[in-house]
Specification:
alpha/beta, 35% helix, 21% strand, 21 strands, single chain, 16 helices, 6-stranded mixed β-sheet, 7-stranded mixed β-sheet
């Protein structure tokens, strides 16, 4: 029996799923990991807690495995970075997550010095604290432990995949999909971008193919070693897990944020509208590209409204509360707990709840939150359409269990929404590992093994959508300026 393991190191949790050769789940485990907010705009995680969550979840699944693991894939939370000591492996800094805004001052300094245009030209990305480069520059400039390790020649800085790979025995390495999220060059590190951000090449990981023989993961608590055959960003894993392996196919993954990726093929795209060129994967030296647009706050907003603001016991209950009303009663929500991404790119924007009256109830705010998330995704889908036609949007992630959200999404974006596997990210990591191990010949075989669920069609016409989207855009412009 062929067994494929997918390790999904997401923002708020680690999910590990064991699959058979047809990507049918055999066993799974989940471990949550908290986000820390030590200062306004700072979002961190404890690296040892992240590692422990991965180790524990993998151990739980290995205890259920009916045989040896033939291939393992690891995906991770993209732009988040940390520093650690090369000799001891001990973390020197927290994980500075992709939501963190502490590097804004450094980026403004670069813009003021006239380097912003060069960064945009070379990377295809705006100067924004979302990307890894500014965070790495901040750690090099401001963190004393990182400075001491650099002076001693033992400093390592990288994304979470490179930390996990290093600590678990597969070496200090990352892949081109990850490098393309750093703003430091891809598929190889760009010397000019390294110079602009002040990052020495020697502290960064090697860039290996996304899929192939990437070493072995091991831990004393595991029953067996794991052949690492794929490593990539979580959203690229979800692209594979949605079966979007041919140009023109588009997916949206609903998690802490929502990330829309459109498969573009072998030619590097030049998207407009604030979208980003990103590497989907590199296999046997062959690079395939995607177009990316991110909504930085989605599930995180529902968590905050329910658990922190007390509107409901949990996000699922909040969605049920939203279903108690037919509309938002004039309430609007801008989901911007981590700024606003594509196509607006307003890193300083904050979440806004507007239109409250004495008649507003928790159900209205809950409904407005879902509408705000769906409108932000529609913003991205709208500009993706300028590069590729979007007839069907394949969706995955926990939030897609809510049929009301899917109907809102279909109506607001004007596309058919096709539900996929909830854990498409872990499935994609495992699928890419099957390609890397030679179990499947190419990524095209992934599509044959991906099952899809119900399709939800728009119930609103284009005239309604154009008017409603115009009102939404006016709200975003005013709210983001507050």
């Amino acid at each position: 029996m062929t067994l494929l393991l997918g390790i999904d190191e997401g923002t708020s949790a680690v999910k590990v799923v064991l699959y058979d050769a047809d990507l049918r789940p055999v066993a799974q485990a989940r471990r949550d990991k908290p986000l820390l907010h030590p200062r306004p705009g700072w979002v961190e995680q404890d690296p040892e807690e992240v590692l422990a969550a991965v180790v524990d979840a993998v151990a739980a699944v290995l205890d259920q495995a009916p045989g040896k693991i033939d291939a393992c894939g690891l995906d991770h939370q993209g732009e988040s970075v940390l520093a650690w000591d090369a000799d001891s492996g001990a973390p020197l800094t927290p994980v500075v997550t992709w939501q963190d805004k502490r590097s804004q001052e450094i980026l403004e300094r670069l813009e003021g010095s006239g380097r912003g245009d060069e960064v945009r030209h070379r990377s295809g990305m705006p100067l924004d604290p979302y990307f890894s480069a500014g965070k790495i520059a901040w750690l090099l400039e401001r963190d004393t432990a990182a400075a001491s390790a650099r002076a001693a020649g033992t400093l390592r800085i990288g994304t979470v995949d490179s930390f996990l790979s290093d600590r678990l025995g597969a070496g200090f390495a990352t892949d081109p999909s990850t490098a393309s999220r750093t703003q430091l060059g891809a598929p190889d590190w760009d010397p000019e971008l390294l110079e602009i951000f002040g990052v020495p090449r020697e502290v960064l990981p090697a860039i290996l193919d996304t899929a192939g023989d990437l070493g072995t993961l091991r831990h004393p608590s595991w029953r067996a070693e794991l052949p690492l055959r794929a490593r990539c960003v979580d959203q690229q894993a979800a692209l594979a897990g949605a079966g979007c392996v041919k140009p023109g196919l588009v997916k949206a993954t609903y998690g802490t944020g929502v990330f829309v990726l459109a498969m573009a093929g072998e030619e590097r795209p030049q998207p407009g509208g604030g979208l980003l060129p990103t590497i989907a994967w590199r296999i046997d030296g062959r690079v395939e590209w995607a177009i990316d647009g991110g909504v930085f706050t989605a599930g995180a907003l529902l968590e905050w409204l329910s658990r922190d603001m007390g509107l409901a016991p949990d996000p699922a209950a909040l969605a049920a509360t939203a279903a108690e009303v037919q509309d938002a009663g004039g309430v609007r929500v801008l989901p911007a707990l981590a700024g606003v991404g594509a196509p607006w790119w307003k890193p300083d924007a904050r979440a806004v709840i507007a239109g409250l009256t004495a008649g507003t109830r928790p159900a209205h705010v809950a409904r407005a939150a879902l509408e705000g998330i769906a409108w932000r995704v529609a913003d991205v889908v709208g500009v993706v359409r300028d590069s590729v036609p979007v007839d069907v949007l394949r969706v995955d992630g926990g939030m897609t269990r809510d049929p009301a959200l899917l109907q809102l999404q279909a109506d607001f974006a004007g596309v058919t929404v096709q539900r996929g596997a909830v854990d498409a990210t872990a499935a994609g990591a495992a699928a890419l590992a099957a390609v890397g191990a030679g179990i499947w010949d190419s990524t095209l075989e992934i599509a044959d093994r991906i099952s899809t669920g119900e399709a939800v069609s728009p119930q609103r016409d284009e005239a309604w959508r154009a008017h409603a989207h115009g009102e939404w855009c006016s709200f975003v412009q005013q709210a983001a300026a507050l």
